[in-house]
Amino acid sequence: MKWTNLLEPDLVIDGSILDLPLDNLLSNGLKGLVLDVDETVVPLKSDRVSPQMEAWINQFRQSFSIWLVSNNLSQRRIGRIAGILNLPFIASAGKPSRRKIRQAMEAMGLPPEQIGIVGDRLFTDVLAGNRLGLYTILVQPLSRFDDPPAQSYLQSFEIYVSQLLGASVFTSKHSVAKFRKSP
Ligand SMILES: [Mg+2]
Description:
The protein is an alpha/beta fold. It has a single domain (3-178), classed as Rossmann fold. It has helices spanning 22-27, 51-60, 75-85, 99-108, 122-132, 150-164; strands at 11-13, 32-35, 65-69, 89-90, 115-119, 135-138, 176-178. A seven-stranded mixed sheet has the order 4-3-2-5-6-1-7. Strand 3 (65-69), helix 3 and strand 4 (89-90) form a beta-alpha-beta unit. The protein is globular. Bound molecules: magnesium ion (MG). Residues 36, 38-40, 119-121 line the site of magnesium ion.
């Protein structure tokens, strides 16, 4: 495997985590989900969890073991969000480092191929997940429609750089794009 494949998600969603198709995850044999927090579950500039996100978590927790794993250094912010959603969490994870994600994997008691990681960043969430052999899912940042959409620029920049490096991240116009890794 080329090292640039480590930057290629297994699935790219042209939408937020709320657009993730449950049947796709189940048909891929997933039983656990590691969720990024900032811009994946809650916009970076907010600590309010939307009712839609609460409903999503409550639906998906019936099928998956879910952990929040964030690079945010604020134990307080991530702990508060985890408390609202009643989910276990790890802050200061240092993704793309694998160490803290491994803690969540061990707590889930699942093999890597049964765990998905969902995040808005290629160079942290996707890279960390691919290093661990997880099913990697890139979502659009929640504040993509903000003015200015700073997090979207960051994601676009990372996709641009990854393509310069030889990775091919394909973002479809459709709501869900299945991305196929090159052999
Ligand atoms: Mg994020």
